[in-house]
Design brief:
- This protein is an alpha+beta fold.
- The chain folds into two domains: 88 residues, Nucleic acid-binding proteins (OB fold (Dihydrolipoamide Acetyltransferase, E2P)), CATH 2.40.50.140; 125 residues, de novo design (two linked rop proteins), CATH 1.20.1440.
- Helices cover 36% and strands 25% of the residues.
- The chain has seven helices and ten strands.
- It has a five-stranded mixed β-barrel.
- The chain is elongated, with a radius of gyration of 21 Å.
- The N terminus is likely disordered.
Length: 255
């Protein structure tokens, strides 16, 4: 028996999960397990039986980066997919090493930090918009990753304080940024801080003050890009407690 939701027919006992593939892993000789960031559900594990067979109807939709509707059924608390409707494959990312390396890092960051079974639709929206921008090539791939990192920190509620007040005591602060303290600091608290250039501070302020769509509409110099790379690397390591090999690989390509 088929139950209809709008124009989509779903067999009774199944449900449709919409999301993007963050990770794929082999299971047995012909099957695959995927981790999906799903709308309304957060991170979920899905098993795709026979998905590694060349003629499998599940082969295309279980690849990394694919944004799909997954028709699944639940058995012993595990999801199994039996039909996939592709929404966006982001295939163009695979045709450019710079785009591909940044995409690997971005989904890796999301996969490592997303919570299993907890709705994170704001992160899903940010991820999808970022992948669209990256795929279209209207913004340099390295800058796309830096902007994603900043919006990710903002969405996660751990964005830095870039106001001209010391994040420790409230006195005037203009030049020095303290990564561990999470913001600008005055001259009395500069120990352990670093100078933040006007260009880097303006870039970060721009991203934090604009929505996802508008945040990608600017450019920076090579020097500022390098500075942002280092500052955000240190900030994420401390406030997200995350250091990823995929980001280190990008360092070798970009800088």
């Amino acid at each position: 028996m088929i139950k209809y939701f709008g124009n989509v027919g779903v067999a009774l006992g199944t449900e449709v999960i919409r999301g993007i593939v963050l990770k794929e892993m082999p299971k047995g000789e012909t099957s695959k397990q995927i981790i999906v960031l799903a709308k309304g559900l957060g991170k979920v594990w899905i098993t795709a039986k026979g998905a590694r067979k060349q003629k499998s109807k599940l082969l295309a939709g279980t690849q990394l980066f694919c944004y799909c509707d997954f028709q699944v059924y639940e058995s012993k608390k595990y999801y199994y997919v039996d039909q996939i409707d592709m929404i966006e494959s982001f295939f163009d990312l695979r045709l450019d090493i710079d785009k591909l390396s940044q995409a690997f890092y971005i989904v890796d960051l999301v996969e490592k930090t997303a919570f299993m079974g907890i709705e994170q639709d704001n992160i899903l929206l940010l991820l999808l918009k970022t992948m669209q921008i990256l795929s279209k090539g209207k913004c340099p791939p390295t800058l796309v990753s830096r902007i994603f990192e900043m919006k990710f920190l903002q969405t996660a509620g751990v964005m830095p304080d870039l106001t001209e007040k010391c994040c420790i005591c409230g006195k005037e602060a203009k030049q020095y940024f303290h990564v561990a303290a999470g913001g600008m600091v005055c001259n009395e608290h500069i120990a352990g801080s670093r100078k933040l250039s006007t260009g880097a501070k303006n870039a970060m302020t721009f991203v934090f003050s604009h929505d996802i769509k508008s945040a990608f509409q600017f450019s920076v110099s090579t020097e500022v890009m390098k500075e942002l790379y280092k500052v955000l690397e240190e900030y994420i390591a401390i406030h997200i407690n995350m250091q990823l090999q995929t980001r280190d690989f990008n360092r070798k390509i970009d800088i």
